[in-house]
Amino acid sequence: MTEVxxxxxxxxxxxxxxxxxxxxxxxxxxxxxxxYGLLTRTVGPQIRGGEAAALIRLASRPVECLADRFDxxxxxxxxxxxxxxxxxxxxxxxxxxxxxxxxxxxxxxxNSGARVVEIPMKEMAKSILEGRPNMIALGIVAxxxxxxxEVFTALIExxxxxxxxxxxxxxxxxxxxxxxxxxxxxxxxxxxPAVAGKKRWLVSGNETTGFGAIRGGVRFAAAYPITPASEIxxxxxxxxxxxxxxxxxxxxxxxxxxxxxxxxxxxxxxxTATSGPGLxxxxxxxxxxxxxxxxxxxxxxxxxxxxTGIPTKSEQADLNIAIYGFxxxxxxxxxxxxxxxxxxxxxxxxxxxxEALQAPAIVLSDQFLGQTVAAIExxxxxAFIGERIRHTGSEAPYQRYALAANGISPMAIPGMxxxxxxxxxxxxxxxxxxxxxxxxxxxxLDKRRDKLEQFTFGDHxxxxxxxxxxxxxxxxxxxxxxxxxxxxxxxxxIAVRLVAPRLLLPVQNAxxxxxxxxxxxxxxxxxxxxxxxxxxxxxxxxxxxxTRVLHRPGPFPIRPSEIHQAIAEWRS
Amino acid sequence: xxxxxxxxxxxxxxxxxGAAYQIEIDAVERYAMLADQxxxxxxxxxxxVFRDLARxxxxxxxxxxxxAGAIDVVAQARRIGKWTKGESPEEVDLAAAHYMMTxxxxxxxxxxxxxxxxxxxxxxxxxAKDQKVVQMAAEFVEEETEHVNLVHRLLRKYPAPPExxxxxxxxxxxxx
Amino acid sequence: xxxxxxxxxxxxACKPSDYRSDLKPVWCPGCGDYHVLMAFTRAFAQLxxxxxxxxxxxxxxxxxxxxxxxxxxxxxxVHGRSLALASGLKVTRPDLTVVVASGDGDxxxxxGNHFLHACRRNIDMTYVVMDNRVxxxxxxxxxxxxxxxxxTAISPGGTxxxxxxxxxxxxxxxxxxxxxxxxGEPNETAAILVEAIRHPGFSFVEILSPCVTYRPDxxxxxxxxxxxxxxxxxxxxxxxxxxxxxxxxxxxxxxxGERRPYQPKFQxxxxxxxxxxxxxxx
Lengths: 572, 176, 282
Description:
The structure holds 3 protein chains of 3 kinds.
Chain A: E1 2-4, E2 6-13, H1 19-32, E3 36-43, E4 52-59, E5 72-75, E6 95-98, H2 107-110, E7 115-118, H3 121-126, H4 133-145, H5 149-160, H6 165-182, E8 189-191, E9 200-204, H7 205-216, E10 220-223, H8 230-242, E11 246-249, H9 253-265, E12 270-274, H10 276-291, E13 296-302, H11 319-324, E14 333-335, H12 342-357, E15 360-366, H13 367-371, E16 373-377, E17 422-424, H14 438-453, E18 462-465, E19 470-473, H15 478-491, E20 496-501, E21 503-505, H16 509-515, E22 521-526, H17 532-540, E23 546-551, H18 560-569
Parallel strand pairs in A: 1-8, 2-5, 5-6, 6-7, 10-11, 10-12, 12-13, 13-15, 14-15, 19-20, 19-22, 22-23
Antiparallel strand pairs in A: 2-4, 3-4, 3-16, 9-16, 14-21, 18-20
Helix pairs in contact in A: 1-4, 1-5, 4-6, 5-6, 7-8, 7-12, 9-10, 15-18
Chain B: H1 13-40, H2 44-68, H3 73-80, H4 103-127, H5 131-157
Chain C: H1 33-47, E1 54-58, E2 73-76, H2 82-92, E3 97-103, H3 104-110, H4 112-121, E4 125-131, H5 166-173, E5 177-182, H6 186-198, E6 202-208, H7 221-224, E7 226-227, H8 236-245, E8 250-256, H9 274-277
Parallel strand pairs in C: 1-2, 1-3, 3-4, 4-6, 5-6, 7-8
Antiparallel strand pairs in C: 5-8
């Protein structure tokens, strides 16, 4: 029996088998028992009844990405499971539990050299009243992984309470049967115990995004659903109401972006969330918010593109549109969270910055962060609460877009007497009156650029870790994978720095250069087909030494081993 | 315009003076609006014409104030307020304005306004029950008739423009 | 009859000029929108709402220039989205009087979708569309309300399309107050605007506002408009029949509905994090 730092389990099933439910329960139980871990899922295109796989990684300390290979694969059935071949890597070290009546073993299992043990989950379930095969499967996993049954009992009660006594009883019995059936199966790995004592959350990136917004002061959201961002809006709807705010469902993204601008004009910090196609629709109004200097936050949970793309998969290819997509010169804020927990901080900080700078902030999350459920250490409280500078009424006449040393003009809120003004998308004077004059155009362009460039963003602009003359530069959800790769490289004796900007716009030139001081080899890692991040770096920063780029589009996240390999190969 | 006149009811002398004063200050405001429009549209000759007309109406307003004696015409005008249907007689037709209009056009507008004022006061003079109101209204009819004649005299100085008066060789500009 | 109203809190008499800014409009002399501006300021004065409590929200087009010509708070937004701006504002600032200004292009073409949903949502605001049956700001292209045989450069010989019926669509989508006005009657229009603003829910006022530059034929409108032959109804079916069969020049309030306005509770509070954190705790 070997003690391991982490264990990866995949549960596959289709046609309503409930593979994802089992996966969720497994993660919940394991984290209740003290472990860390995360869960992602991969699915077929059907709305219901499709093939699905829950991909779980359990660990003794926080993890931010999936591992390269799976230790355990349970197939409740194998219908259409070949589609998961690229994502579920099994090999001679893996154990596969298969139902003899679950269809043919998929090729990726047959050819892998994995050990296959058959357990008749369907048949076993049939013999239990309201017994379900996915609960049998869960019991098997629980036994193999070393999870106590009692942890599950309470969980099942909670989760299935609304389905009735018989259903939850049936599930418990099925679980027991699975545990019993697994007693005879050999599995040589045990998870090392987790370090106890830290307060932990079980949460998805979309949920922490919503919470970060509320913490930052957002009290109005407008919503148009889109995969994979809808959960942010669904999470916010009742919770905003709880804090006296409101969420309004809009007829389309053009409405939702304009609604939040209207609410912010009236004095309320406001947010919407969308994905790539929605962000494209919102671009015009983002320009309006920039020109009229109205704070708003737009979360883009990036998915495979272009166009309708791959809605259920992650990619990092909306960087271009977020940074360069506005017509005209329209400096604004672009931020990118780096983990499920960081979605909270980054959204909260984005709200604070948008309000302070009276500018729109785009938060580039992605499907991986948004829809991964992870056990994380409770994020520290931070004191960033969005509050724009308000006009106090002392100087008259009021100039909404008055030039200021720091470029930020006090904002009058409707209702304040003597400060009436019209917010304006046309190029305008300090008062806000439309103009086509060269001097005024230049002054306002300078002002909107300078207010961002002069601002002190502090250390949150990037994650900087490690030393060495090799650096991995990455962003967003790949930060976790890069960190693991760097750890692996460290064990090989290679010292590697990690540079992951959280603030992508405005560009932090001097600080980036300082962060890369002494670096001779730069490995850029990103999830896009055209190398959008690499081109962004080339466009805005001086890159030292040699640069290599490890990039590919979605749908599968770049794994730590790939990054590690790229680092190791680059030794001459 | 609507077929139903919405003029305020005039029964007392206070009503009458209020209405008369309101008519004049409405006219001042209307001509001032038109002067501003001409200024923005670069027709300086017309700016002067409309400012002159506004000034003239202002003088009429002052005259009415004097004629009113003890009656506070400002307060009475406020009470009378804006006409509820249509506009007051000397609020000349904004729709008839044109950025290339000539003094002749403005005078035609003014003429129509003054004639409407004559008609308004004539109606009161013919139908009021209070003799004082009848008398005063008749005086206003005389004064407005004088204005009509004045406009006619001015029109002799400003001939009707040729057909090409509105010809602008430049095309309209798309602005947004 | 309109009176000058002295409000207890302002202690000021409200005159229409209180609601005018010092900016001189760039509209062509002869444009109907000058009358609409007068109607706005006269209506605001009659309502005696302080200028700082009114927000005039607009999109893009000649009519959308109106906010800066008033002395109220204003928003000159992007093309077609004024109703969305106004909805976000009103829901979070129910204390404000929100008036939305648009034109037939901004409101019925690019803004069409938002129009339908704003009627349906029935948030308390007043939507004023200055309809001149043409795209004035961009040199005279047909709009959704342009007659099918109106010849333009972009549609030679006319579009051949039936015009959009804004009042019918407003009624079908749930607008709570529907009126048609004529710009050439600013006082009548002001009176209707007062009622529209006072009426709860989504009030829709279409104002026929002639375009002197691209539609000189609209000079005839003053002879074509006439007061609606019957009083406003609160029966949508009756209103539908009347509106669908009218000649497009019926002036007056045509429908007064009784739907409750949509106004969710909005009383933002600071957050004690534990209120929302508990659900995440393991």
